[in-house]
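The instructor's notes for this session suggest beginning with a concrete chain rather than abstract definitions. Hand out the sequence below and ask the class to guess, before any prediction is shown, which regions might be ordered.
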Amino acid sequence: MSVDAWSAFWGATNTPRARLAHRFLKLLPQSPRCGICSAPFGGFGRYLVWPFGYRPSRKNPTVCATCVELSPPGGMPMTIGVLFADMRGFTARSETSSPLQVSRDLRRFYAAAEDVLLPEAIIDKLIGDEVMALYIEEFAQRSDIADLMLEHARALLARLHHDSGGGPALAVGVGLDYGEAFVGNLGERAIYDFTAVGDVVNVASRLTGGAGAGEILMSDRVARKLSAPAGERVELELKGKATPEVAYRMRSGRAEAVA
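After discussion, reveal the predicted structure:
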């Protein structure tokens, strides 16, 4: 599917016909509903629409699969926020822990991420000891994406007790970036998935790799959009980047003095 065709599909959610369909779906009982098309997730109405894919998305339970995974293959450039959170020392910890304990640690990490990031973010991937989340205004229903990402990063570290005197339950570092990416259902034929690709994703991932336990590393692009000071300014050598990347470091969810 071409970029123009996928853009048309995305834009179709705001056409008079789409708004009429959304009003019809909203008449069906009952809440909770898809935050995009108003399809019911509860009551008798869900039995009418679920066979057509209007059921909670596995990536964000506040929107339906039709609005996310079941949209057509293809995509388009969009400005988004990207958050990566990564467990520190996971490989070494796995060597000295039983497989059962490793699975418990991962479940605890994933559960904390879901509790904090949803419903505003789309949890794009669970990659072993790492979580990748996307922030798109239409799904988040907020325009201050940078502030939202920082709120979530702080809340995730707090949920894992990085601010407590007894030490964290799990050591986690977070990386944030904001910028243009290619967003959509990428892949071919039967195997495709709603995701994002581009420099903004790569930078967020690299920043996560440079964040220590209890730290948030955000790009200058995120910092410039925040409503409050961003922390300690640093310059980092990131893999694949020809020049140092300006970033801002925050520790234990609290802002350091601005350099």
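Then share the key points. The chain has two domains: 3-72, 75-251. The longest helix spans residues 99-117.
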